[in-house]
């Protein structure tokens, strides 16, 4: 989060936004949020929900309203999501002036049951559920009819490409590779059978698991891309941190693919493109590290960047054939 955003956010603003969702500021328990203020909220009746406060320099009202609209659609199709809730005024997005010509935007979301799965989870039931959840989401997203003011970006919109602008000029090879990947991806077809509105960040930190049901939340990045890209993002976060990414992929991908195929067909020509999609995500994260984390004492940026460059030397980021089971 940018320092000026944190500096502008006052206790009075927090209290006012809380009141619009029917609670006092004392009911807000701060959770970890990377680019927004996130709270677990307990109502007087003992119910819980999540409130999120975002600055308008990062997201605008139409984008947040559209995010909320999409989650409510998915919930109506029995997809297990933490859907948006209305404020006391019947609004999906509440706004308050930040005193500098911009705004803070507040949204509320149902609380996902269960808890965050361990980063190294290898349970077949879990990965089957994760694949099934995305398969069901991809199967119904084509039924979604956006409203006239719907505003969610495509994968190559300025909103998403902004992260890549922070790859340093001192690394021309990474910049050139990023441009090559961008050009290749832009040559892919965008027909409705392979491309649509998806979560775009469906890794383990954005789901809760209670042992039988997986619920997805935080649709902040939701937008339009290839369904295969949405799946590759999950695999990127799930396997690359392992000492042996190939072994991890061989363990996690089969149950994930089996779950996905319960709702949607996997096409080998698209799962074969996972490596390119993973490289795209790797370069975007490189930009984020250079923008936000170089001076973070809790993050070893030098180590991450060193591993990034090592990964980029490989023929494939993960030496595994993701067309297996597709």
Task: Give an overview in words.
The protein is of the alpha+beta class and 326 residues long. Helix content is 41%, strand content 14%. Helix 4 crosses helix 8 (245-260), helix 6 crosses helix 10 (274-293) and helix 7 (227-239) packs across helix 10. The longest helix has 20 residues, at 274-293. It is globular, with a radius of gyration of 20 Å. The protein starts with a helix and ends in a 14-residue tail after the last helix. The mean pLDDT is 95.
Observed structural traits:
alpha+beta, 10 strands, 11 helices, 41% helix, Aminoglycoside 3'-phosphotransferase, Chain: A, domain 2, 326 residues
Summarize this entry quickly:
With 326 residues, the protein is of the alpha+beta class. It is built from 11 helices and 10 strands.
CATH class of the largest domain: Alpha Beta
Classified in CATH, the superfamily of the largest domain is Aminoglycoside phosphotransferase (APH), C-terminal lobe
Shape: globular
Topology order in helix (H) and strand (E) letters: HHEEEHEEEHHHEEEEHHHHH
Q: What summary fits the major beta sheet?
A: 6 strands, antiparallel
CATH architecture descriptor of the largest domain: Alpha-Beta Complex
Helix content: 40-55%
Rounded Rg: 20 Å
């Amino acid at each position: 989060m940018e320092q000026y955003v944190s500096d502008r956010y006052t206790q009075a603003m927090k209290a006012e936004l809380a009141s619009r969702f029917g609670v006092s500021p004392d009911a807000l328990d701060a959770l970890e949020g990377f680019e927004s203020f996130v709270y677990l909220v307990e109502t007087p009746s003992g119910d819980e929900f999540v409130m999120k406060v975002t600055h308008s320099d990062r997201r605008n009202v139409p984008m947040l309203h559209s995010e909320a609209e999409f989650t409510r659609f998915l919930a109506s199709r029995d997809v297990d999501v933490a859907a948006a809730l209305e404020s006391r005024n019947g609004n999906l997005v509440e706004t308050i002036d930040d005193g500098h010509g911009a705004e803070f935007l507040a949204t509320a979301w149902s609380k996902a049951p269960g808890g965050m799965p361990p980063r190294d989870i290898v349970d077949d039931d879990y990965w089957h559920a994760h694949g099934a959840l995305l398969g069901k989401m991809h199967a119904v997203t084509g039924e979604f009819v956006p409203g006239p003011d719907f505003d969610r970006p495509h994968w190559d919109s300025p909103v998403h490409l902004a992260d890549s602008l922070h790859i340093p000029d001192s690394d021309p090879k990474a910049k050139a590779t990023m441009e090559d990947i961008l050009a290749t991806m832009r040559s892919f077809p965008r027909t409705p059978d392979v491309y649509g509105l998806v979560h775009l960040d469906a890794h383990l930190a954005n789901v809760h698991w209670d042992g039988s049901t997986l619920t997805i939340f935080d649709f902040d990045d939701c937008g339009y891309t290839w369904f295969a890209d949405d799946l590759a993002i999950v695999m990127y976060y799930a396997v690359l941190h392992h000492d042996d990414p190939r072994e991890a992929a061989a363990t996690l991908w089969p149950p994930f693919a089996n779950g996905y195929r319960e709702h949607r067909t996997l096409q080998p020509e698209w799962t074969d493109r996972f490596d390119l999609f993973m490289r795209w995500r790797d370069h975007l994260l490189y930009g984020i590290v250079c923008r936000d984390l170089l001076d973070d004492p809790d993050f070893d940026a030098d180590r991450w960047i060193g591993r990034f460059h090592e990964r980029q030397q490989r023929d494939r980021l993960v030496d595994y054939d993701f067309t297996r089971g597709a």
